[in-house]
Write a structure and sequence with these properties.
Blueprint: E1 9-18, H1 29-42, E2 44-54, H2 65-77, E3 82-85, H3 91-101, E4 104-107, H4 108-119, H5 123-137, H6 141-144, H7 146-151, H8 166-204, E5 209-214, H9 220-228, E6 245-252, E7 255-261, H10 271-276, H11 278-281, H12 283-286, E8 289-295, H13 301-314, E9 322-327, E10 342-344, H14 353-366, E11 369-375, H15 382-389, E12 391-397, E13 402-408, H16 410-416
Parallel strand pairs: 1-2, 1-3, 3-4, 5-7, 5-8, 8-9, 9-10
Antiparallel strand pairs: 6-7, 11-13, 12-13
Length: 432
């Protein structure tokens, strides 16, 4: 008897490079290869593909009629169960293509959502995926219910016995989905509150946050595993990490940081997916430092880095200090990048990890000062502020004063500089 449990769905891929599209939205060989990798991650196998060049997409079936016939022939010749489009399809285009091709039709957004649904493990991740799926489904209900809308057509064209409440059912489903979306958004707002509380606690404990960001499969989880000794699955496939993982990392004798792994970015990431994942990705805007991990062994690394920079900007984290980490440098044959806030490493072998730790330490300490204070007991109230907003290395109570060694931010330095023994305010250039 044939074992169908592990049988992979066979998919044919299709893409459109339309002149009216933004250059980054057009399908090409690279984006089609990435689509094939996405199909593989989802548990299928891409067996054939085609790309069409034309000025604009066909409003009815996206591709031209001839290409649709060619696609159908590929499906029949390769015994495919699925047609996956590299571009986003409208609900009506998806319905028409399903009828024309005789197989299930997915676009890139739907495929990514399917992968996310498989991968999300935590309750938070599952909530985010569910919210994104409902937002994706809502505008597509009309296409799904078209057969019932046709049955209730005016003019008496509907056969006897087929006049049903198609439009009523459509509206009922829309209301149901809108209620679900509202409920999910409320639950995610609660998640944000919990995260905000945890963040305030970290700030109180003066624990800097470092976020790993980058294109999917760039090696973020491998770096986290190497630096912290964590045991997070790090496989060579897209979207292997969906749920944020945070681990402690000691970078020197006086400083410990929280290192967070985040979901990888990808080109043509659906907008509603970014919105749904903001509860996870908002950590980026609160991070003290971003580690932008770039797979330099990938021929498309420059384009991938541009996409990540663009998404970081969308999330409001463009002002956060960033170190660019060029990973997999052992597999790169060209001249490695160099300069300020640039580190080349191999997370697999550990080469360059010490340079990354040093760069991280330099970045976190560049805006801070280590000072020795002698606080009179009349200013003892500052101790609470120092414990909350600085890193206190030593506190000693003597007969005359309270002696402290602390690492302070520039803002806090202004409040405590008068208690630094022998401190003299530096002169401005015009005063010299």
């Amino acid at each position: 008897m044939e074992n169908t449990e592990n049988k992979k769905e066979r998919a044919v891929l299709a893409g459109l490079s339309a002149a009216c599209f933004d250059i980054h939205e057009r399908s090409d060989e690279v984006s089609m290869e990435e689509l094939a990798a996405l199909v593989d991650t989802a548990g299928g196998v891409a067996v054939a593909s085609l790309i069409q060049n034309r000025p604009t997409p066909d409003p009815r079936c996206f591709l031209g009629d001839g290409k649709v016939k060619e696609l159908k022939a590929l499906i029949e010749a390769n015994n495919c169960d699925l047609a996956v489009f590299d571009n986003e399809l409208s609900p009506s285009q998806m319905r028409v293509l399903g009828e024309e091709l005789g197989v299930k039709v997915l676009d890139r957004s739907g495929l990514i959502l399917d992968i996310f649904a498989q991968r999300a493990q935590t309750r938070e991740g599952q909530l985010q995926v569910e919210l994104a799926q409902y937002k994706y489904l809502l505008p597509r209900l009309t296409g799904m219910w078209t057969h019932l809308v046709r049955q209730t057509a005016s003019g008496g064209s509907s056969p006897i016995g087929t006049r049903g409440p198609g439009e009523t059912q459509l509206e009922t489903d829309r209301r149901h989905i809108r209620r679900k979306i509202q409920k999910l958004e409320e639950e995610l707002a609660e998640v944000r509150k919990v995260r905000s509380t945890q963040r305030r606690r970290r700030e109180k404990n003066s624990m800097p946050v470092v976020a790993l960001v980058g294109y999917t499969n760039a090696g973020k989880s491998t770096i986290l595993n190497y630096l912290t000794g964590a045991d997070i699955p790090a496989n060579n496939r897209l979207f292997d990490t969906l749920d944020t993982t945070t681990r402690r990392l000691r970078i020197d004798d006086s400083m410990e940081v929280l290192l967070s792994d985040t979901v990888g970015f990808i080109r043509k990431l659906p907008t509603h997916l970014i919105e749904a994942f903001k509860a996870t990705l908002e950590e980026l805007s609160y991070a003290d430092v971003l580690l932008h991990v770039i797979d330099i062994s990938n021929p498309e690394w420059e384009e991938q880095a541009r996409i990540v920079d663009e998404l970081i900007s969308q999330l409001g984290a463009e002002a956060t200090p960033c170190i660019r980490v060029y990973n997999k440098c052992d597999a790169y044959l060209g001249i490695l990048p160099h300069g300020e806030n640039i580190v080349c490493m191999s997370a697999k072998s550990g080469e360059g990890a010490d340079r990354l730790i040093q760069a991280l330490c330099d970045q976190l300490c560049s805006s801070k000062n280590t000072v020795s204070l002698q606080l009179p007991y009349s200013a003892a109230g500052l101790i609470d502020t120092l414990n909350r907003e600085a890193t206190v290395l030593r506190t000693e109570y003597t007969d005359k004063c309270i002696e402290c060694d602390v690492i302070v931010t520039p803002e806090l330095f202004g409040k405590v500089k008068q208690y630094i023994p022998g401190y003299v305010e530096p002169k401005e250039e015009w005063e010299e």
